[in-house]
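User: Can you predict the 3D structure of Flavin reductase like protein? Sequence below.
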Amino acid sequence: MRKIDISVLKDNVIDLIGKQWMLITAGNIDHYNMMTASWGTIGFLWGKPVACVVIRPQRYTLEFVEEEECFTLSFFNEQYRSALKLCGTKSGKEIDKAKAAGITPFEPSRGCVAFKEARLIFKCRKLYCDQLRENSFIDKSILETWYPSRDLHKIFIGEIEEVWEE
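Assistant: Sure. Here are the predicted structure tokens for Flavin reductase like protein:
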């Protein structure tokens, strides 16, 4: 993998997140967890390139993202779709998801964990977090469609500090 400047990124971020999916990972090489996500954004805010991710309260990964200063977003080629499906349906409390998915954790930068098989990795330093609130939804149909159990996501905005690509 080689380090690149985010400004030269060629990927369509809507496709990257919404169709190709990503792993959100936090922790250290000895104790981490990851989850598959297909919701999030990449953009520019507060004079910085940022990534925004959302995590439901029941996800084990939430504990790790809350505790750590950084999280990573790892994007994979299509051949890893089944690994991403596994990481989105199994809990890291119950199994070693990396081993079961056949992916290899490593530290691309001090204080973060990502996966050697990823084709693209973002290291994000947390800048902001908040809990989505029912009364803040203007379009109430979103609540009924996406939150029938009212398990609203926690939102994290992180500065994209480093980017690696294969």
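The helical segments are 13-18, 61-67, 81-89, 97-101, 141-146. Residues 33 and 96 are 9 Å apart (CA to CA).
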